Amino acid sequence: MPRTALILLARTGLLRLASAARVRQWVANGGASSPVRQQAEPRQLLVDVSVIHQHDAGTGIQRVVRSVLHHLQTHPPDGFTVRCVVAQSKRPYHYAQKPGQPGAQKVKVQPGDVFLGLDLAAHLLPRHLSQVLEWKLAGASLHFVVYDMLPLTHAAQFKAARTRHFQRWAQLLAMVADSLLCISHSVQVDLQHWLSQNAGLTPVQIPTRVIPLGGDFYKDTQAAPSSPSPEVVQALSQLQGKHWALMVGTLEPRKCHAQVLDAFEQLWHQESQAALVLVGRPGWFTEQLQQRIIQHPQLNRNLYWFNSASDAELVLFYEQTTGVVVASLAEGYGLPLSEALVHGKPLLARDIPVFREVAGEHAKYFTDDGPAALSQTLHGWLTTPRPADAATNFQPTHTWAHATQSILQALGMAAITPAECECV
């Protein structure tokens, strides 16, 4: 099919009516057969930062984006210029504008340029199918990080709008992606199953690779405050001498904050002074839970919630907590697992395959989240003395420097020299 016809179908939305396999065949036949590049200009590594450029909510995905982008910019791949690109609902991809720069320009590609969908822009990318299709037909390659398939595999846990956006995003990936970078083998299995069942594609047609995440925090004096907030300082002071657990993540049903709170209430009824600290922004379907926390008699005594903690403050919590609880029913990875282990902290995690994949033998696992059973598990886990060398037993396989190197290798670029992050 001629390139102009493909672009027209994409602009009108009719291209989505065709099967992904057929679209991939049309694109392969319609691309530039002998791409010619202006040798004077280095190739572009176009990094999608659409969501975080508008607002950094401090979620796990956004910590990934910030960390990888930091290493790409400080150690760019040989022969490439790293350029951040952003899209909005009614504005196509353009180069990210910094303060003091002239008006942002629309992205222009040449053969050999590479687009990396680092940010999760599922609600934006499908709106600009014709633009990314033009890039591909012009000789650029398109690669996307896949953090999970949960809006499709666990749709009841998400708002319907998010599931619709994610469905369209996954269909776009099936049509145009040159490769997909998964953050765990569990995600890779889910993705390949979805591509097979819904797009009729095999791993040969769309290569998928696993890119494990890091768990360290780099020092960014511009992003991190020079000192923690008074609320954080006061909480950490009140927590001194107590056994306390940390939960990190957006308040949403599948992360099971309510079940953990139920278990802690059992402990408090038994006059335990064990404490629970929640770090995460308010999410969907948790309005009752949020009110329960805000109105709880133990709030700011043995229960704390910080919904806008900075990375520097999060590091303080990791450094001083007794241990980290990760109770999610489903995850693509579970970033707090790696972050806790890097800080040498005990882990109590729900026994699901992806947590076993990430933490292995370095965590205690639970299956029963009933209040009585989980409260007993929590009590034993929090109060059991640890061996003196327990914090040094875990050697993190991946820092963000190594994770970024793995991404570049998957993209066929010269790998950067790994440099350990300077922790906050």
Question: What can you tell me about this protein's structure?
Answer:
With 424 residues, the chain is of the alpha/beta class. The chain has 2 domains: 3-29 and 42-216 and 401-410, Glycogen Phosphorylase B (Rossmann fold), CATH 3.40.50.2000; 230-392, 3-Layer(aba) Sandwich (Rossmann fold). Helices cover 39% and strands 15% of the residues. The chain has 16 helices and 13 strands. α13 links the parallel β11 and β12 (347-350). α1 (3-12) packs antiparallel against α5 (129-137), α2 crosses α7 (160-176) and α10 crosses α15 (371-383). The longest helix is centred in the middle third of the chain and has 17 residues, at 160-176. It is elongated, with a radius of gyration of 23 Å.
Shape: elongated
Integer tally of domains? 2
Structural class: alpha/beta
How many β strands by DSSP?
A: 13
In short:
The chain has 2 domains: 3-29 and 42-216 and 401-410, Glycogen Phosphorylase B (Rossmann fold); 230-392, Glycogen Phosphorylase B (Rossmann fold), CATH 3.40.50.2000. Helix content is 39%, strand content 15%. The chain has helices at residues 3-12, 20-30, 50-54, 60-74, 129-137, 150-153, 160-176, 185-199, 230-239, 257-269, 287-294, 311-320, 335-342, 353-359, 371-383, 400-410, and strands at residues 43-48, 80-88, 91-95, 114-117, 141-146, 179-182, 208-210, 244-248, 275-279, 303-306, 323-326, 347-350, 364-366.
